[in-house]
Amino acid sequence: MTEQLPATSVAVLGTGIMGSGMARNLARSGLDVRAWNRTRSKAEPLTADGVRVTDTPAEAVDGADAVLTILYDGAATLETMRQAAPALCPGTVWAQATTAGLDALESLAAFARENDLALIDSPVLGTKQPAESGQLLVLASGPNAVRPVVWPVFDAIGSRTVWVGESAEEAAATRLKLVLNSWVLNVTHGTAEALALAKGLGVDWQHFLDAVEGGPLDNGYMRAKSAQLLRGDLEPSFATRTAEKDARLIVEAGRRAGVRLDVTAAGAERFRRATGAGHGDEDMVASYFASFDGEAP
After folding, report:
1. 139: alpha, beta or left, given left = phi > 0 and alpha = psi -120 to 50?
2. What is the pTM of this model?
3. What is the pLDDT of residue 280?
């Protein structure tokens, strides 16, 4: 495979919490950006940043050097790429950033082979704020020859890129993302449960923070998420229903590997209960509300 030139145009398919920030940073870096979202109105504000919003995935990918997908799950990604297929050129580089899980990635890799696309498995670590500021961590695996195409794409959306393999089909980046997400989700639950217990026992949360300050039990993420919850600020940087989806992908990946993930499975159930109580579109720290049968204090 001949080494290719860096992309000057990119199609972004999916402009939700993550994709909108990514599209803006791509445009601000000087790339020609076309964007599509299932609900067009959610993508329209991107026009102020020079992004061309399209009506269909096929319009977005037509003539693009690279395609970036950042959708809800693997099924949505496959459906969208099938809609884009008539306008995809053989050899187009496809950076697949959705947290799709191992089963879905196999289907996406098969689609890439059938359509002669150069697939890069490239999930990102980070939430809304890092996406908006271009500070995501990109985890990537894909052929050396096509990496130059996505250098300007990954440089625009992330603070750094960690290459972990030369074949997207081996899912090295997705496997690493699932491990990282298992840690993030479990720390979120630990924070939410500890704060719920403090509320239930009448313990001042500041006393908890003072007790762990500067020691091995202290954690910046815990402090940030607990402060967010105490402020009543549940604006999602990562939505509860999406967190449940990722938790179930992690549990399934563990099952495939013969690893039982009891804590993550219980966490998925907490997210389900929080979603059922009306917190599905709020930040995943809404796991807190799963600790109470009635109204949370």
Report:
1. beta
2. 0.94
3. 97
